[in-house]
Design a protein that fits this description.
This is SH3 domain-containing protein. This protein is an alpha+beta fold. Helix content is about 60%, strand content about 5%.
Length: about 1400
């Protein structure tokens, strides 16, 4: 196989971009597919085909070597889909960036909700999107036709696929960081072998395709099938499926012969471009001689040395002497058997056969000029279709830099809830309809300006207004009846005509090239006008003769000149006039007659290379006619095709004089295809492109331009990074004309060629803006800085740099102001300040008005950035310079900006004086908008100084003025109403505050200002929530969600949905709970898309909590488990412990299935709390586990957790936690029947008890000692100790002054001494004392006082209580350790 076949799969190359993907997960059911994926861990692709490369590299051609013939491809199962994988990389490290990759995935999840945009993107790329898989960083694509694969593979190899994904998926903030922009790249890749297999499969499905033979085919002697086709190796065939297993029907393109060919001997042409070309332009390669390799360079220039003595057979060939040095004229191209050379000895020029020379001092052509010369590259740039004009650029800069900063006051800002900044856009001035020029309307066709041309290329050029010549052979060459000779054609010329013909004869008879200026200077108006008449098929009146000069008259006069040239032996005149006659006949579709004239012209014995353009035109036109009339013998025997192709390919700056010359390029492309010569193919593509652009047929030129750019890129990858010109700008223009905005933006952003002047740079910017508008249609038609995408900053900066280099201060200032506004809109204030400073420098060179506008913008930006001192230093001199001027508005602007800076510095008094002065100036000038803004700023100043009443007065006055403006100041009006609402709220007038805020919302809705509506809706929702009117608050939060969706801000939408879910849940009805669940699920999907793991886990948890309230236990378990799994992905033990605990709390705090909380506490929260040493969390969870087990009578299971809770409580360092842990442990021991240990730990609780600083502290001791007494008396049967505990409890009750408790304890003591410890005296004493408290218990007014005996007993008991606390505190740790060992 040839080298081209071996590298066939390299058409699918990786390209650059920045992006992210995910599978769509919207469903009308309660649980979406994406939710099930997370619930059950289903995150794999549904397909089982593993077709992605795994990093194993193959030699070129290895993939195709397995299926390089039709027989190998037949019968295979072609998978219909292709996996396109993307990855984010850092150029600085050369490796993948995990953080960047996750950011790309997140962005894709967000953008996936707009599935139509993604489908539209891949539709532009000629691919069909099946699905998106963010977690695997891939798209699943498919193709239905070979043309789709051809176009997609072309876009992929040119880098457009990656750049389209970058433009589509990258966050706008990415383009604001130049360092990140230069370091990050996005690579896309797919498995080339699979795409090649799919390409073959589609070819086989279509049943008709082009192939070439891999070996020579000859009919065997014993072969019975006489229908077999005989051909040489590497012959081009049109193959058809005829239903036979081993054979196909083949048609030779060279001869048209048909026959059967073995399927194993046919190899489909590797590149889809070749299939498309041969279908659209059928041709053959007969008549082209075999090439003799002469140089190792595909295209070379320099010196060759003759190896033989050679006598030419016609005057156009060069005579050679062995050893003679020959200079190559033009290019020496591999694949072309001839070249044009000049003898360094004689200076003669002619055709030279490569087989007659050997290489001398040959050098490769300039690597920066692949397939073309420097002059041809400049000519190609001149052929670019004009999309804009200079007045369009001027209008664009005016739109981008338009602002009212020098005439309209700025609004102040109280806090973060106010508008960041307000920029009122002046109404655009109407333009005259004749001056309106956009990219969407086709501009007037540009008149191409060429260098001085020869007569053959200038006088007979095709008028661009026709465009009626098509690529079809039948349309290009239309045969008509032979010319009928008429007597009028040969009638005698008049005297004036004889003079004109004589003058033409003298003009044409020159041995050098005849330039256009020679004809223009001569008095031959009839000739020029007649030529135009022939080209445009219109009649023109000759100024000189006053008659119509038509084709018939022209032919008659030219024939007379021809006869005269023959009679007088004027060879050059004869050749040129025969060419003119042939051109007139050719345009008049008298093709046979034209061929005769061309042959006669070439038969004239002159040195043809003296007029090289004429010689090229003669050979190319004659060869085109031979090809059309299928006169292959003449093409071969006269060497016409070989010489015509040599002149077209090797000579630079070929001029298009007829669409027929395109016919010559058909066999040349086939020849390059067969030889596998990339240089020859690139040269042919360049010629085809330039010819079609000359004809104004840009649509037909696009495939050749794409192929040429691909070939240049291939050479660049092999040779050096700087090899070859970058044609991306021309591609972007043609894509824009085809209404393919994604490709236009991709090509434009990949254009690495430096701008050719400020006009070209502004044209790039204009094209980018218009293509962006097509991709994302704006709400308004005017281009403003707020509508500029951040990607356009690159082109703005390029234009700014060129404007500075060229010294164009006006454009420099406008571009600086535009950049400052763009950066301000996107919140990059420091960059905005820097460009405003540059605008000041440029404005100082222009005039006072331009400088003032730039300085005012600079001062305001300093105020916004917090540089109030710097702003004051900048604005104070500006105000001084305006003193005494008759321009009140600029002075008022400066006063306002100074006031804003002073208020931020805390100088309210001076700020108020400046605002009052600004108000006075606005009143003097009668400027109502400035009056309203000045009054609003005064109200804001008063609010900041807490002078609410004064603020209300100023704001009321301003609100009376805003309705008079009639639009244009809606944001200012809304801001004033918000300040008025804040003023009313400060005075407690909530009803009026609500009315002011709702009025602001109505104004925002009327103005269709989404940002204003969002600000006011948030204020209203918070207002109603503060008044506990949750239903009204929900209405406005729903409005906030709708506005966030219009802004495509997923983060904001998720935050509002989370708040909505909580508000709906607070209403506490089943319907509201269902609605809360819906909001939570929507918020959950957004969290998944954004990759916010923590918020996602909390959303899963909240949804599980709502399902528990709705008594859907199965779904509760599923969502809680999903919350836990998501929390584990965060890899934060503290967060995981909290999620486990909250999941358990759903059951623990509920009334159903409380024991389901145990796995979350025991198996999740406790281990994570220990791993992160969170003692407090561990104690809290262990206490919950103990309490839960005790509640459900699992006392024995609760005991170890109670012991662990005691141990962890000591680590918290909080006495209360220790006391609670010991008391819970005591209760557990009591429940399991170990009363001695229970008594011990209750005493430990007493030792950790609070100080007696409050009656409630004493009550605690009373309850504990009472409980101890009951345990000792009833379970341990120790009446003596029980009496002591009762006495301690009695002392605590007396300290707390709890009469009821004292009464009960006295009666217990009386009963104890009556039965268990018989003591009549004490029994009577306690009984009597208890009876004395009866009257107090019954509510009598007289409260009996304790007797002296009682008081003494109380003091004694309190002393015992304190002694007991200290005694047990000494032995608590040993007892705890002992009991822990017993439990183990």
């Amino acid at each position: 196989m040839s080298a081209a076949d071996e590298t066939v799969c390299k058409v699918i190359m990786a390209a650059c971009c920045q992006c992210v993907c995910v599978r769509r997960c919207l469903s009308s059911s309660d649980i979406s597919p994406a939710e099930y994926d997370i619930l059950w861990g289903g995150n794999d692709l549904d397909r089982g085909n593993d077709i992605m490369t795994t990093g194993q590299e193959c030699e070129p051609g290895e993939k195709w070597s397995r299926r390089n013939t039709v027989s190998l491809a037949k019968g295979e199962h072609f998978l219909p889909d292709v996996v396109l994988v993307f990855s984010g990389k850092r150029r600085s490290t050369g490796g993948c960036d995990a953080e960047l990759q996750e950011a790309l995935r997140t962005r894709l999840r967000v953008m996936e909700s707009s599935s139509q945009d993604i489908s539209s993107l891949f539709k532009d790329l000629s691919a069909r999107l099946l699905s998106v898989h963010a977690e695997r960083d891939c798209f699943i694509l498919t193709f239905k036709t070979v043309e789709e694969i051809w176009r997609f593979s072309t876009y992929l190899s040119l880098g457009y696929v990656a750049r389209c994904l970058e433009n589509f998926l990258c966050d706008p903030s990415f383009w604001l960081d130049p360092a990140l922009l230069s370091d990050v790249e996005i690579c896309v890749s797919l498995q080339e072998e699979h795409l090649a297999t799919l390409y073959l499969g589609l070819l086989l499905q279509e049943g008709v395709f082009f192939a070439k033979t891999v070996r020579a085919l000859a009919r065997e002697e014993d072969e019975d099938d006489e229908e077999q086709l005989e051909c040489v190796c590497d012959a081009l065939l049109l193959v058809r499926d005829v239903g036979r297993e081993e054979f196909w029907e083949g048609t030779l393109l060279s001869s048209g012969a048909r026959g059967l060919v073995p399927a194993s001997a046919c190899q489909p042409l590797p590149y889809p471009f070749y299939q498309w070309f041969l279908r659209k332009y059928p041709c053959n390669t007969s008549g082209l001689p075999a090439d003799t390799p002469l140089s190792q360079h595909p295209m070379a220039t320099g010196i060759c040395v003759a190896t033989v003595d050679y006598e030419p057979v016609d005057p156009d060939e060069l005579a050679l002497c062995e050893g003679e040095e020959l200079a190559v004229e033009g290019f020496l191209i591999q694949g072309v058997g001839l070249f044009v050379g000049r003898s360094l000895t004689s200076g003669l020029v002619g055709f030279i056969h490569k087989e007659h020379v050997r290489p001398g001092d040959l050098k490769a052509t300039n690597a920066e000029l692949q397939f073309m010369s420097e002059e041809e590259r400049e000519d190609l740039y001149g052929l670019e279709p004009a999309l804009t004009h200079s007045h369009t650029h001027t209008h664009l800069l005016k739109q981008l830099s338009s602002s009212d900063i020098s005439t309209i006051y700025r609004m102040d800002r109280l806090d973060e809830s106010d508008f960041t900044y307000i920029k009122s856009q002046p109404k655009p001035e109407p333009e005259a309809p004749s001056r309106r020029q956009t990219l969407d309307t086709a501009p007037q066709r540009q008149s191409w300006t060429w260098p001085r041309l020869s007569l053959s290329a200038s006088q007979m050029s095709i008028g661009r207004s026709t465009g009626g010549v098509s690529f079809s052979l039948d349309d290009t060459f239309r045969e008509t009846e032979p010319v009928e000779e008429e007597e009028e054609l040969w009638e005698e010329l008049s005297e004036g005509e004889e003079e004109s013909c004589e003058e033409l004869l003298r003009l044409l008879d020159t041995p050098t090239a005849l330039l256009e200026v020679d004809v223009c200077d001569a008095s031959l108006d009839w000739l020029r006008r007649a030529c135009v008449c022939v080209c445009t098929w219109e009649e023109h009146v000759c100024e000189r003769e006053g008659t119509c000069v038509c084709e018939r008259t022209l032919l008659r006069r030219l024939e007379c000149v021809r006869e005269a040239a023959k009679q007088r032996g004027r060879a050059w005149a004869l050749r040129r006039v025969c060419f003119l006659l042939g051109r007139v006949c050719e345009r008049g579709t008298r093709l046979s007659q034209a061929r005769v004239y061309y042959e006669e012209a070439l038969s004239v014995c002159v040195s043809g290379f003296a007029d090289r353009p004429l010689l090229t035109a003669l050979y190319t036109h004659l060869a085109a006619l031979y090809l059309h009339q299928r006169q292959t013998d003449k093409l071969t025997h006269t060497h016409t095709l070989a010489r015509a192709s040599t002149l077209m390919l090797t000579q630079t700056r070929l001029r298009m004089s007829s669409a027929h010359q395109l016919q010559m390029l058909h066999p040349l492309m086939c020849h390059a295809l067969l030889l596998g010569q990339r240089a020859l193919e690139g040269r042919v593509c360049f010629l085809w492109l330039s010819m079609l652009l000359q004809l104004g047929r840009q649509e037909e030129a696009l495939p050749f331009l794409e192929r040429l750019q691909f070939l240049i890129g291939s050479q660049r990858a092999r040779a050096c990074p700087e090899a070859g010109p970058d044609l991306s700008w021309l591609l972007s223009v043609l894509y824009h004309r085809r209404y393919q905005p994604h490709l236009a933006l991709a090509a434009l952003s990949l254009d690495s060629s430096p701008p050719r002047g400020l006009g070209h740079a502004l044209g790039r910017l204009h094209l980018y803006l218009r293509s962006s508008e097509r991709q994302n249609p704006p709400t308004s038609t005017a281009a403003t800085p707020t509508s500029i995408p951040t990607q356009a900053l690159v082109f703005l900066k390029q234009a700014l740099h060129i404007a500075a280099l060229e010294g164009k201060h006006t454009q420099h200032r406008q571009l600086c102001i535009s950049l400052a506004w763009v950066y301000l809109h996107h919140g990059v204030l420091q960059e905005a300040v820097l460009h405003a400073e540059q605008a000041v420098g440029a404005g100082s060179r222009l005039g006072e008005e331009e400088e003032f506008e730039a300085r005012a913008l600079h001062g305001w930006l300093l105020v916004l950035t917090g540089g109030s001192e710097q702003a004051r230093a900048v604005l104070s001199p500006l105000l001084t310079s305006l003193q005494g001027s008759d321009s009140p508005s600029p002075r008022g602007v400066v006063h306002t900006l100074l006031a804003l800076s002073l208020r931020r510095l805390g100088n309210f008094q001076e700020a108020g004086s400046h605002l009052c002065e600004a108000l006075r100036l606005a009143k003097e000038s009668g400027h109502t908008p400035n009056q309203a803004i000045a009054l609003s700023n005064l109200g804001c100043l008063a609010l900041g100084a807490r002078a609410v009443g004064v603020a209300e007065g100023f704001l009321k006055r301003s609100l009376h003025l805003f309705p008079q403006l009639g639009g244009g100041a809606e944001q200012e009006h809304v801001q004033a109403l918000l300040w008025m609402g804040r003023s009313y709220s400060s005075q407690g007038q909530n009803h009026r505050a609500r009315l002011a805020n709702e009025m602001a919302l109505l104004i925002g809705i009327h103005a269709k200002n989404i940002h204003s509506q969002l600000v006011v809706s948030k204020v209203l929702s918070r207002h109603y929530a503060g008044e506990l009117l949750y239903a009204q608050s929900i209405v406005y939060y729903e409005q906030c969600v709708a506005l966030a969706r219009q802004l495509h801000d997923k983060r904001m939408e998720g935050d509002f949905l989370e708040i909505l879910g909580s508000l709906y849940l607070s209403i506490n009805t089943e319907k509201s709970s269902r609605r809360s669940l819906d909001c939570t699920k929507q918020s959950l999907r957004i969290c998944i898309d954004l990759g916010k793991r923590r918020e996602e886990a909390e959303s899963w948890l909240h949804a599980g909590r709502v399902y528990y309230l709705l008594q859907e236990d199965e779904l509760t378990d599923m969502y809680l488990q999903a919350a836990v799994r998501t929390a584990l992905k965060v890899e934060d033990p503290t967060f995981s412990a909290s999620i486990y605990e909250e999941a358990g709390d759903v059951f623990y705090k509920g009334h159903r299935n409380q024991l389901k909380a145990l796995p979350y506490y025991r198996d999740g929260s406790v281990p994570f709390a220990r791993s992160c040493a969170d003692v407090l969390c561990e104690f809290r969870v262990l206490s919950k586990v103990t309490e839960l087990l005790m509640t459900h009578n699992h006392h024995q299971e609760a005991l170890p957790y109670a012991l662990l809770a005691v141990q962890s409580s000591t680590g918290t360092g909080i006495r209360l936690h220790e006391r609670v842990a010991y008391q819970r442990l005591a209760c557990v021991y009591e429940a399991v029947g170990q009363c001695e240990l229970a008594e011990n730990y209750f005493l430990k609780c007493v030792s950790l008890g609070p100080d007696l600083t409050h009656p409630s502290d004493a009550r605690y001791y009373a309850r504990v000692y009472t409980h101890l007494a009951n345990i000792t008396l009833h379970k341990l049967k120790d009446a003596f100790d029980a009496a002591g505990y009762y006495q301690l409890a009695l002392a605590a009750a007396v300290e707390a002054d709890d009469v009821e408790c004292v009464y009960v304890l006295l009666m217990k003591l009386a009963e104890l001494h009556a039965s268990r410890l018989p003591d009549t005296h004490l029994c009577h004493h306690y009984t009597h004392t208890a009876h004395t408290l009866t009257a107090r218990l019954e509510g009598l007014t007289r409260t009996p006082q304790l007797t002296h005996t009682q008081h003494t007993h109380t003091q004694l008991t309190h002393t015992q209580l304190t002694h007991t606390r200290h005694t047990h505190q000494d032995t608590d740790q040993d007892t705890l350790t002992l009991q822990t060992t017993q439990q183990s």
